[in-house]
Amino acid sequence: MIRKSGAFILFLASCIVVFCFTLLHAYLLHDKSIDKIALSKGLVRDLALTDLCIFTEARYTRHPSMADLHTPFQDHPTAMEHFPSGSLLQPPAHLQSHGMD
Amino acid sequence: MEWIEKQRNVLDFTLSSILRRKSKNIALFVVFTAMVFLLASVLFFTGAIKKEASQLLRAAPEIVVQRMQAGRHTLMPLTAVDTISAIRGVSKVEGRLWGYYFDPVVGANYTLIAVKDALPGTMVIGNGISRARGLYKDDMMTFRTYLGDNTAFMVSEILSAESELVSSDLMLISEQDFRNLFGMKEGLVTDLSVTVKNSRELATIAQKIADILPDTRPIIRDEILRTYEGAFDWRSGIMVVLLSGSVLAFVIFAWDKGSGLSAEERREIGILKAIGWETSDVLLMKFWEGAVISLSSFLVGITLAYLHVFFASSVLFGPALKGWSVLYPHFRLTPAIDFYQVSALFILTVMPYITATILPSWRASTIDPDAIMRS
Predict the structure, then answer these.
(1) Closest-approach residue (CA) in chain A for B336
(2) Could you give the CA distance from residue B329 to residue A52 in angstroms, rounded to a whole number?
(3) What's the pTM value of the predicted model, to 2 decimals?
(4) B329 and A53 in contact by Cβ < 8 A?
(5) Which residues of chain B, if any, have pLDDT below 50?
(6) What is the pLDDT of residues B272-307, one digit of tens each?
(7) d(Cα B69, Cα B74) in Å, to the nearest integer?
(8) How many whole angstroms separate alpha carbon B41 and alpha carbon B234?
(9) Are B185 and B248 in a shared domain?
(10) Is residue B205 part of a domain?
(11) Looking at residue B68, which CATH number applies to its domain?
């Protein structure tokens, strides 16, 4: 009968092998993704896109890089943040650097 | 060989000891694994999306110039094209015509862009719109114009599903259709995209634009890239706020389990010392105890996190990431593993646990075995 230590080492080794497979998978997929990235990049170039399409509910979450200081307040200066995505996003870089756009 | 045999003997004993307190250790393994899984999922997701964003948005316009009026973005007159073109170093200035359309049928927002090669009455749609509205090639979709009339467009093409991360909600129509739909006069565009001859002059040219046209704001590509660099920074946002509670709970749980020796464990150490185990042997056993739990949890947790993010498209984060949007892109991120972050996660989870397991045992194993067994 296999010793407990043997069974554990086997378990640990199989975990390491599976983890190594994920690294291999990441490496192989990276090569495969070049076409996908090129396709999307072509679209970004042709259509002059500026943002990723992740949060589509509000204009400042759909195009965060185009947001200005007032957009989160939408219709009222003291209006609370309406969309949860606003909690996930930081203010765009140009607002952090310029301050008063 | 003798050293290996000794380690295996201690490991055998440690595993028997762990199995004697099965339920407690299984609970610890599950919580530890869940913690590593959550943290690694956030790391993998943010790392991959940041990398993909930086690759894709490197093709974004070098400078976008928007006009501001009363604190809001407003339409740009095409006369600004000539003004900006006259700046030395600018090679091309083009007007961008884009906007949003709210579709009351599904409650989703679409991004409409006017493109030069679109035929009037037709549109090219993103895969997300096709999925949300059940629209396919040659289908018609009705829009409500600014006058309240209805106008229909035929789907001429659906953008590839592989480009959904940038195109899910896009709707490409002709310039005339765009102007008719939104009542936008000729001579006005949404904003301008500027290309420069030398990318090192971007900041200077942006400053010149802001000086010549004081009611505009130039947004340079680096700022767009930095927005996405920061947007999913794992130190920011609600995800980490939520996770920090779980991390603290885990730290308290692990510290309590690791550092607080139970009476049974103290008695075990006393007996081992009484039958001739050295303090170093007891510490070795405790090291293996910490290593068995933390190493197994780390490896299982990190592998599950990889499967979750790159095979199951971060299904558990879905509700948080979707926000309140109706139209959500289906995208599979290209795996990007940052070894620095994985090592940091390893050091922050495995090392403290092993230390927390060894330290109290060291204290207990230096006390007289008779005193331990009597206490």
Answers:
(1) A26
(2) 10
(3) 0.82
(4) yes
(5) none
(6) 888 888 888 888 888 888 889 999 999 999 999 999
(7) 6
(8) 11
(9) no
(10) yes
(11) 2.40.40.20
Residue of B nearest to A69 (CA): B71
Answer whether A80 touches B (CB < 8 Å).
no
DSSP string, B27-94: HHHHHHHHHHHHHHHHHHHHHHHHHHHHHHGGGS-SEEEEEEETTEEE-EETHHHHHHHTSTTEEEEE
Decide if B100 touches A, using CB distance below 8 A. Answer: yes
For B337, the token pair is 């593993």
Element housing B96 (H / E): strand B90-96
Give how many domains chain B has, as a whole number: 2
Chains A, B: CB contacts within 8 A come to: 221
Residues B239, B191 share a domain: no
Q: What is the ipTM of this complex?
A: 0.79
Residue with tokens 């290209």: B334
Task: Determine how β-strand B170-173 pairs with β-strand B108-114.
Answer: parallel
Question: Is residue B177 in some structural domain?
Answer: yes
Contact flag A41-B55 (C-beta cutoff 8 Å):
yes
From residue B236, give the alpha-carbon distance in Å to each of B232, B241, B283, B332, B348: 7, 8, 39, 23, 19
Does the CB of B220 have a partner CB in chain A at under 8 Å?
yes
Kindly report the number of other CB atoms within 10 A of residue A1's CB atom. Answer: 5
| Contact residues, chain A, for B115 at CB < 8 Å | 47
